[in-house]
Every structure is written in structure tokens, then in C-alpha cells.
Amino acid sequence: MGKRIMVVDDSRMVFLQIEALLADSDYEIVAYCQDGNEALEQYGQVNPDLVTMDIIMPGMDGLETVQAILEEYPDAKIVMLSSLAYEDTFTEAREVGAKAFLDKCFDRQQLLDVFEQVLADAETEES
Fold first, then answer.
1. Mind listing the pLDDT tens digit for each residue in 24-45?
2. Do 97 and 51 contact (CB within 8 A), yes or no?
3. How far is Cα 74 from Cα 66, in angstroms, rounded to an integer?
4. Structure pTM?
5. Residue 15: left (phi > 0), alpha (psi -120 to 50), or beta?
6. What are phi and psi of 78, to 5 degrees?
7. β-strand 27-33 against 50-53: which pairing, if any?
8. Whole-number Å distance between alpha carbons of 24 and 27
């Protein structure tokens, strides 16, 4: 059985890009949310193995959403995906609990490598 992914991004184009990159991989998108509130509602229902999270979204931004998800689900594994690839953004994402950060100019291998690393790190922490 593949790993379950929840994509949180207000851009449908980014969702379609991730969907295409994950085709024929061990990952399956089980939920797509266009804002933080929707992500909070969906997380407990779909219980994903990993979440990709945009930062800039209408309403609750990605950093606030990460904090809210982790308050309720402390074992959530969240990878930030953003075009705001600045060191202070990386730092803030780590501080709120994101496991990794990818600039939105990623390719299939970069996405898969980050997913594998985050899941491997989580397994190491659990044992």
C-alpha cells in the first residue's frame, strides 16, 4: 500500500503538478485542500502519512495551519512548498514544526527524496 499524501495549496496548478510528479510512485494523493481551514477539517478524516503545505494562502496561512495541525496531531509530517525560498522563511517553517522545505521549482526526484527523508526520519524518531 502506498503512502497517503494531503496537498494543501490554493493553486490548482501546483496540485496538478504534484499529482503528475507522483504518478507511478508509492504515493497517493488522498486529499486536496485549498486553504488552512479545509486542511484542518480534512486531516483527521484522511489521516495522511505526509502533508505538503503552501505558505501563502487566503485566510489562515500555511505556517498558522502547520501549528494548528500539529497542536491536534503532533505526529503529523508536513513539508512546506513555497516560492518564498528565503532563509528566514526556512527558519520560521522549521520553528513551527515543518519537517522540510522545498522551493516550488522542484522536480520529481527532489519531491520523492524529501518525502523519503521525512518519513525515514520519523521512523528513526519512533524507534
1. 999 999 999 999 999 999 999 9
2. no
3. 10
4. 0.93
5. alpha
6. -125, 130
7. unpaired
8. 8
